[in-house]
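The following block was generated as part of the benchmark described in Methods. Ligand: EPS.
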Amino acid sequence: MTRLRMLTAGESHGPALTVIVEGLPAGLCLEAEVLNRALRRRQAGYGRGGRMKIESDAVEFTGGVRLGLTSGAPVALQIQNRDHANWLGAMSALPRDPEDAEREAQLALRRVTRVRPGHADFAGALKYGVDDVRDVLERASARETAARVAAGAIAARLLASLGVEVVGHVVQIGDVKATVEEGFWSDWPAACAALEASPVRCGDGEASVAMVAAIDEAKRQGTSLGGVIAVRTTPLPVGLGSHVQWDRRLDGRLAQAVMSIPAIKGVAIGDAFELASRTGHQAHDGFAQGYARGSNRAGGLEGGMTNGQPLVLLAAKKPISTLPRPLPAVDLSSGEPAPAHFERTDACAVPAASVVAEAMVAWVLAEACLEKFGGDSLAEFMAHFEVGQDLQSRRLGPRGVEERGST
Ligand code: EPS
């Protein structure tokens, strides 16, 4: 059993999203406002649709936190769906009542049978044997990622106690590519502030403007845009993950977590696909001076373990498949051709997805840190971390620590 577990529940237009996080040490400071800040960042980003004008995501702790601190018990929280008020009849847990004409009318209004290509609708309806695709789409909706961002913010809190920070940002929307030089990260707080100030969470001001224009154009055309997300951390402790077994390798675990975000179709670590066409001499990060490296092409991972460099992960997000100008599809109730279902959508959710990817990376890293350092209380966890750092420092000597940089 993994040390840290997360379960989410809830439908997009149901009463609330629920999250349970189990395995946290006791004594971790958790304030709702810290999680709410992360939720607001997920709601923002140019290109979001009508739903985000209705919601004002905020958590309510219902277990595991007392007087602002974790107790070691499972942390449970809820995020209300404000839009649920408009879906009371259609999303009620009560059994159908054929005599309730008003509710039957609401159910008919919200019934979906025209499947959206690219979404879970077709496969989900066949797999679960449902006539109303709403049974599938309500849970497949990217609304679920609000729950993950809340859990990720808890993970980030744990990482912060070790001096580790994680941030997600956007490096491409449609065909507009950003240029973010390595020097951008030399001042971490300034870099993060620049990302928050961009309407699309992009570190390249010129590209941000072009991305906004591209989103406007996509909206005009009734279509949507995808893009490329990057997640970056401050230097990580050496040795998170392991080379000894396939399911302990951190690169695989990170890829699984990030690939599980709706619409993410590819994950790359470091220079990844570019490495494929380079020679070995051009692909690896030589020890330039003592333990110092002149580059980070490996993206901070070697042999499935962190190597003390910042983690750099990229993720490709396909355009949202709910389209104002619908794709040709099929009506499952008749088998006849019909345009895909459309209610409303986001022209571009790449900035939001970068916040979700940040949450998932923070989650996997927190899990790996808990695995390596253990501890039932935060004090114990931090003490184990200090001992580990101390042992590694003694092994490398003062020069090694200086050259490798400390976390
Ligand atoms: C989302 C909530 C959804 C969409 C979007 C993401 O709200 P609704 O379905 O009420 O419009 O805005 O999800 C999708 C477009 C999708 O295809 O899943 C959210 O909270 O992020």
